[in-house]
Amino acid sequence: MKKLFVLDVSGFVFRAYFALPEMRGPNGESTQAVFGFIRSLDKLIKDLSPEYVVAVFDGPNNKQSRQELYADYKSNRDRQLGDLPEQIRLVKQYCELLGISCLEEKGVEADDVIASITKKAVADGFEVCICTADKDLLQLVSSRVSVFNPWKEQEIQYNEVLSQFGVPPEQIADYLALVGDSSDNIPGVSGCGPKKAQALLKEFQSVEELVANTERLSGKTKQMIEDQKETLLLSKRLATLHMDLAFPLTTEEFAFSPQAIDSAQLNTFYLQHGFKALVKHAETATSSIAVQTVTDPVTLKTVLEQLKGGEVGYCAAYTGEHLPSLQLHGVALAGANQVFYIEVSGVQEIALLKDFFADKATQFFGYRSKRDNHALRNSGIDVHVTADLVLAEHLVSGGAKISFQTLLMESGHIQEAVFFSKEWGAGSLPVQSLPRDPLQYFGMLASKLLAIKNYLFVKLEEKGLKDIFETVEQPLEAVLFAMECVGMPLDSQGLAVLDRDLTKELEECSQEIYDLVGCEFNIKSPKQLSDILYQRLGIEPVDKAKSTKAEVLEALEDRHEIIPKILMFRATEKMLSTYVRALPKQINAGTQRIHPTFNQVGTVTGRLSCQDPNLQNIPVRSERGRSLREAFRVKKDNDYFLAADYSQIELRFLAHLSQDEMLKRAFNSGEDIHAFTASQVFNVPLEQVTKQQRYQAKAVNFGLVYGQQAYGLSKILKISVSEAQGLMDAYFARYPLAAEFITQTIEQASKNQKVTTMLGRERILSDWESSPGARAASGRLAVNTRIQGSAAELIKLAMLNISDEMRSRGLKSRLLLQIHDELLFEVPAEELEEMRSLVQEKMESAMELSVPLVVNVLIGKNWAEC
């Protein structure tokens, strides 16, 4: 007999939504419910091999009819589910891709649709298996209807219902009416448990018979039923499924054939939503790419002549780890219809490639190409880059991480996307780490860059981002490349002295901790430290977990003298392991400098990040941080460091973007902004502001830039939440347009699901409804992105303007580092005054704001002096 499998989709989706950790796709959308559904359905199809399947969804306003009977029906489910409806839409899309029919009826619950379709299928001569964990649907079980619980992998038939509930399936609705159902908020009869319900139904068969014959009852049971008979009858109506819905489809139309599934479309869906592990690998993924290998100079010259003057996608194959030591092995080049892999083995090939890449009539397109360009430059080949497409992708995606394979898929290259889903295709990789033939890998990568270029350039135009790409991001990459080539001078001997001093301090600090405890233990072990603090020393924990995280220990700092010493131990140990002992290993033997990588696509705000090593995170204010910075010193006696940083740049952007007159007045008059704010908030004359008041005002000023709320401010200032809220209220009373700017930014971001910087960079913000905490976090990110993202654009413009001017003047000075709102230069003595003037003028004029930009310039022989 034919068998129809009916999927209760809500059960699958709700379980996955709450059981799985949060997952997000490449575009930032939540996907855990979709992923959980796919895995469950795939297993069900594999295990049960269904030939007929229908997926049933709750229709819009599906609880309306029962809520008209009982307003609290399923009210316990009316929590904020945020993005779950969007995930259900994706689940429906997935079912349709599999060829599974989807049913839903407006104003009707899925259970009623399932009941009606089950009745129809049985009448059509089918057996029915309902895939669900919902006990309501057990009332449908019969000789030809079963329920399969996919999570317990258990099929429930007539006898199993009777054994589990003590009543047959046809009495399940009566049973639930008596005992109630907490999952649907069906009230039931207070005081009636399962055994009482079973006994009553055995005697009276139904709720209606029970209510009609209460004279046969006695004592408390009689009183219980008579007092609650209206609730009982209501509960029966709520629990009873409706089986009278009509559907135009015949059961035969629910036929399911796995062989008919379009695997390419399915893979597109997987890649689009970040489910790379689910991609079905296509063996034909590489068949359309014919890569021609070039191994001799004569052929290479011919190939380069063919490509010259056109659009060329390129990528490099290399080995090595640090930028100056990357060794070039080959180059993949792709024109409109041809793909070549050039094995670079001699000076003739390098000479030909050098001329080719320098040709300004040829347009070169790469993907994460800055590292490729280092490998090429190390062989004497400089690339005139037209566009690094990862920069365009980062702008188009609004900061969301989009994989190379997603770009391939969106530009119509599905099979290649499948290939790259198996072999990380976000850019060129060192040869030895590639799992496949590098010829095929790099050939395919280069061959698809032009197609991706066309797709991204259209998107840049549509989103109004072409200008920021062409005038800021792409030219900035050349500036960053030059900075990476120069590197940062570092005195390894100075680090050795610091290593010795900090090691001694660490040993002394450890001994002081042991002395306080009375025994030795592993201070770095969270478990051992927790036992020492909360058990041996009896410190009252601030949370049930008895955590030893930094923020917890900081809250306990005044509880015991050991806490400051532990914090000191951690700070010293981190300084040693992260910087003092790690940095010498990254000094290049040839240049005696370290060469960090600057990343334009590492943050969603547009800020630059720094890695290998991260020099942006070296402490500034601590004594140890200053000692570490002393090790960064110029190599030549005639050279100096020149550091230039913007003064209170984010607050100046707040004044400009909000147009708050009081804030603008403070900056335009040259006042100390924190003292000025303290004067306004505490209502005291400027000259009478105390250090404590200025400190609190400073915390409020910077907290607001980062979207901080009263709770966060209270932690920083170590005051109550109500006191912190009072400070914020006083601040906004004095700066009303600043308050309005923050409110409007959040409202617009929530409405548009994105926020925009001054130059038009977008950041997608889609998580506004999943929880109050998520909404608050999105609001903070909106404000922070608007201000910090615009400030990031300012310093990028300054870097471009300064670099252009240095080049036009033929100066020997070099830009070494960008640390958010600070630039660090290496300057020969004879150019100091010229560079001081040039840098200050270009930084202060990089953007025209309604408040002045102020730049502070310091000069020294080492970084600490700046």
Characterization of the model:
One of its GO terms (biological process) is DNA-templated DNA replication. It comes from Chlamydia trachomatis serovar A (strain ATCC VR-571B / DSM 19440 / HAR-13). The protein has 34 helices and 22 strands. Helix 13 packs parallel to helix 14 and helix 21 runs antiparallel to helix 24. The radius of gyration is 34 Å and the shape is globular. It has four domains: 252 residues, Rossmann fold (3-Layer(aba) Sandwich); 173 residues, 2-Layer Sandwich (Nucleotidyltransferase, domain 5); 96 residues, Up-down Bundle (Taq DNA Polymerase, Chain T, domain 4), CATH 1.20.1060.10; 118 residues, DNA polymerase, domain 1 (Orthogonal Bundle), CATH 1.10.150. It has 866 residues and is α/β, with parallel strands linked by helices.
Distance between the termini: 84 Å
Q: Walk across the major sheet and give the strand order.
A: 3-2-1-4-5-6
* Low-pLDDT runs: 281-287, 424-428
- Radius of gyration of CA atoms, rounded to a whole number: 34 Å
Total number of distinct structural domains? 4
What's the helical proportion of residues?
40-55%
Output the CATH topology of the largest domain: Rossmann fold
> What's the architecture of the largest domain, going by CATH?
3-Layer(aba) Sandwich
What global shape is seen?
globular
Average residue-wise pLDDT: 89
Keywords:
866 residues; alpha/beta; Rossmann fold; Taq DNA Polymerase, Chain T, domain 4; 4 domains; six-stranded mixed β-sheet; 22 strands; 50% helix; DNA/RNA_pol_sf
